[in-house]
Write the structure tokens for this entry.
Amino acid sequence: MAQENTPAIFDYNSTRNKLILSEYGRNVQNMVKYIVALPTKEERNRYAQVVIDLMGFLNPHLRDVADFKHKLWDHLHIISDYQIDVDAPYPKPTPEAVHMKPKPLRYPHQRIKYKHYGKTIELMMEKAKAIEEPERRKHMIQSIANFMKMAYVQWNKDSVTDESILADLTAMSGGELKVDETINLNRVEYRAAPQTNTNNNNRGRSNNQNNRGSGGGSGGRTNNNNPRNNNNQNNRNRNNGGGGGTRKY
């Protein structure tokens, strides 16, 4: 009797239910589904505690999070699609609270007069204008001027004079912040970040290895003109019956 060829039934992930929280895996989701179907709350509480311990073991990084137990219980309710009925030590989350979207951040529509100095400089000038103590106000203005010079050099690699910085300071503050023109600001130099090229380093190493292997110069390790190598080669030829002799078998 010929055996009938019945098509095999395969269980693919595409045919299974969607994983609600994939970081816990399908086995945990099946366990939670089993707990939901238990008849008594006592059994559900006991098995739920076991699943909570397993979830904490599968995700040890949650232990560094504040109230990680609370987070695990929330995940348990989410995996059960909010259908599990257990005595949880924390309040049950709601789908509205879980899927709540944060409010979009407002993009700052503030006009910056001197963009290479930034908005922070303008805020610092407003703080300096409110200072009434002459000595403290003087130190504040000098600090702002030094900061402006540092910001200028970051955007412009060329040298900048102190007179230009002081002129910008007076213009930006509307003439309310002034310093002595004979003051010397901190010296700031632009230094480019060093760039390391691994290809050049590897190329240099390979060239050094080739030079050592080729025996170039007087310090080569392998040299065909070495008398010791020639003597060893002659001895091998004699042992192998070289030099026109006949070998006996």
